[in-house]
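Supplementary Methods, section 5.1.

A reviewer requested that the exact input to the structure prediction be made available. We therefore reproduce it here, unchanged from the version used in the analyses.
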Amino acid sequence: MHRRLLVVLVPLAVLLVAALGVPLSVTVAEREMQETYVDRLGDVGRFASLADTALSTGRTEALQLELARYHELYGIPAAVIDTSGTVLLGPDRAYQEAARAEPALPRIVTAALAGTRSEPSGEWAPWDDSALVVAEPVGRDSEVVGAVVTISDLSKTRHRILVRWAQLAALGLLPLVALVAVAWPVSAWVLRPVRELDAASSRISQGDLTIRADAEAGPVELRRLAESFNTMMDAVENAVQRQRAFVSDASHQLRNPLTSLRLAVESLEPHLSTGGNGRQVYDVAVDELKAMQRMLNSLQAMARMESMRTASPVDLDAVLATRVERWRALTATAGQTLAVDVPPGLRLLEPPGGLGSVLDELISNALRLSGARLVEVSAGVVPEGVVTIAVRDDGQGIDASERAQALRRFWRSPRHQNVPGTGLGLAICADLVGAAGGELRLEDGLPRPDGSGHGFAAVVALPVVPRAAAPSDAPAVSPV
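The structure derived from this sequence is encoded token-by-token as follows.
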């Protein structure tokens, strides 16, 4: 997260440095060019004064030697030309070679012969290779007899500009480096509570209500947020615990009176006549008491299973190894056939309360409610990184319109009202699978033998756990 914060801050800092650095770089370059121009202007002004005297007296030898020495020392051709542009004094060959490469030379020379001082020519940009042409008239006003012209190579000046720009860029990088050096730990410190809140929220979504955020680290605002988060979670956890405790305590407290009532009702059996209406009332009362006891047992089991809210990795092979034989025995007793088609090596996130308990409930539903001949358990991995475990049968099934209601607590199909059950099994399984980040779906099952439709299928989808995280000595079950 702090990387994203730096992605926002660093470009802003770069824009700020650029906004300050670009005008400063332009100013530095212009100042270097101005200094060079002022130097050349002073040179041609001095040569123009000497040329005026030399041309008026005819003593040009000293000026010729000085112009040659100037060219030798600085590499800048300086020449005295007449009004026709002919070189009178100076290095004629070097001047002509330099003049041919400067298209601005005629304009500047014409202005100087007209008696005006020329503006500097050429571009100051370091990627341009034009020279600086400076011309000074010899004589005054209508008495101009020629001009002194210098053609200066600006490569050294442009090199100095590049050096200064490099220095400015290095200085501009210092605040950026300092910003990153300071912002990285500071942003990590500021955002650490946010990451912890995110991790805590993820754990809570998986059913762990005991997790709390660190309210001692980070800025004051985030510490207050963490304290509020912890206070909220304390209230939620207390409410959930009170609810579970109430269900468990109520079920437990009702068990003894209900058992006593059942014993009292059953003790009336010897006193009932065989053909009277009392026998029917007695049977109804006993059946209702048994149903109430099953309901209390289911409520207690629900409270115990929901108290276990931590999902953990498990090998599907290990779960099946402890249950397949028992399922075969149960289906054989009910006159049914069990088929298991599960590839080895699947590892997934186990719901709170255990994957085995969820599968036991689904197998139990198939045995008690479907009237099926065949019960099939299969598994596979879908591309989304999810393991699907399906329990299908070829029995009665339920209508598509009833499937959503079947996952609600205490709901029972009208066809199963006389079959022992509480209507809590599928609802509890759906809650536990959801707590592990999975899903319990109800679908069409296997085709019925008479071709009248399909049976019932319960599909459990749970996240895959990579095998690299699995222990090497995990138990395995042979394909069955």
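The chain has three domains: 2-159, 211-309, 311-480. These observations are discussed further in the main text.
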